[in-house]
Design goal:
2 domains; about 15% helix; six-stranded antiparallel β-sheet; eleven-stranded mixed β-sheet; alpha+beta; YerB-like fold; about 400 residues
Length: about 400
């Protein structure tokens, strides 16, 4: 009897150890990988993070690798990090109540256009840098879909809802039409917490609920990898950049023949809170941004927003006439061609822009028809109505 009890105890212990080991193996597998071998996290613990949780890299490492989005030179380690994901476009608003925003300074490229009522909104494209906390995140607009569509196959697009009235401005309907819904489209309405969350205190003053939505670029990239099987490759194994058309960058970029050290932009007449001024700083080679007459600050860095190149695209603006309240939904004629003003190194280049289709790149040419070579650094596109005002000196 004693021998039988001893054998029974040993069997129970053996079964427990086997089951515990199997459970551990399953759990470990779930937490170190995902479908099709994609990593479960794009921000592994061996990467350095700052106090806010943003992934950072040693600035003293040799800068040998070119960011394909804006031409900046970074280290090999940073390239190994960015090559694990795909470009991420995030809608960040620019209403007065939303300022100062978070994360814009870390975007490789920013597009700004009026969303409605003279109030501008920005599409910020992140790829080679971690933006950290970003927001306030706002809704989609059809013309911003056209711009993010330039960033390869199935670019990630983060927003909170969007225009959805039947007609030409139906951004949410277009997202479904493009095959983005539930895939590369990162709509907060279908994702929620903890990828997105509301922070009512971040701006330090009372604001309406629509100005309180935030996320982080790491959370969005991780969500896409774990839940949508989208990293640098899609669910079919295709690379995001197989058809991506990169701009040409140079240490000696195209420069203009006339001064362009001070730029003043009025999107809509009389809407002074959204007037933009860029001032060239010859010491850094950067344009410093003022918005509404004051320095435009990134809350995460407490520094003024800057750009290496400012591109003004003149486009026909019209109302969608879709029955939406006050006919607020807008359209921009962003396919075809039009006038452009390109500001690089304190000079102005008068040129033209061309975009053949939604997924085609917006190309820029000087007056001789030669394609622009960009300076290495952040590019800020200003989409200004043909009825707007742009002055430079």
């Amino acid at each position: 009897m004693k021998n039988n009890k001893l054998i029974l105890i040993i069997l129970i212990i053996a079964i427990y150890l086997v089951s515990a080991g199997a459970s551990y193996m399953i759990f470990a597998k779930r937490n170190t990988g995902s479908v099709s071998g994609n990593p479960a996290s794009l921000t592994p613990q061996n990467l350095t993070k700052d106090a806010s949780g943003r992934v950072t890299f040693n600035d003293k490492d040799p800068k040998t690798e070119v960011c394909p989005i804006n031409g900046v030179m970074y280290s090999q380690k940073q390239k190994e990090w960015w090559e694990k994901h795909r470009p991420l476009g995030i809608m960040i608003e620019n209403s007065e109540d939303a300022r100062p925003q978070s994360g814009i300074s870390f975007a490789d490229v920013t597009y700004e256009a009026v969303a409605e009522g003279g109030i501008t909104r920005t599409l910020n494209v992140f790829y080679c840098q971690d933006g950290g906390q970003v927001g306030p995140v706002r809704s989609a607009r059809t013309y911003f879909l056209d711009f993010i569509s330039e960033y390869g196959s199935y670019p990630l697009y983060a927003h909170v809802g969007g225009a959805n009235t039947d007609g030409p401005a139906d951004a949410l309907g277009q997202i479904e039409e493009y095959g983005w819904g539930g895939y590369n489209d990162l709509n907060q309405f279908s994702i929620g917490f903890p990828t997105f969350w509301r922070d009512y205190d971040r701006l330090g003053h009372d604001v309406a609920t629509e100005h309180t939505m935030y996320s982080t670029t790491s959370k969005l990239w991780d969500f896409a990898a774990k839940n949508r099987d989208l990293t640098n490759i899609d669910k079919k194994g295709a690379l995001w950049n197989q058809d991506f058309v990169a701009y040409t960058f140079s240490d000696t970029p195209t420069v203009g023949t006339i001064p362009g050290k001070s730029i003043h932009i009025e999107f809509w007449e009389g809407y002074k809170s959204y007037f933009v001024d860029w001032k060239y700083d010859s010491a850094t080679g950067l344009y410093l941004r003022n918005n509404g007459g004051v320095a435009h600050i990134d809350k995460d860095t407490n520094k003024q927003l800057t750009a290496k190149t400012v591109v003004v695209l003149s486009m026909v603006e019209s109302h969608a006439n879709d029955g939406y309240e006050n006919d607020a939904h807008l359209l921009y004629k962003d396919k075809g061609e039009g006038k452009a003003m390109i500001f690089i190194n304190g000079t102005e280049i008068k040129g033209t822009w061309q975009k053949d289709s939604r997924t085609d790149r917006t190309l820029l040419f000087d007056q001789n028809g030669k394609q622009i070579q960009f300076a290495r650094g952040k590019i800020w596109f200003e989409i200004v109505p043909t009825t707007g005002t742009v002055t430079a000196q």
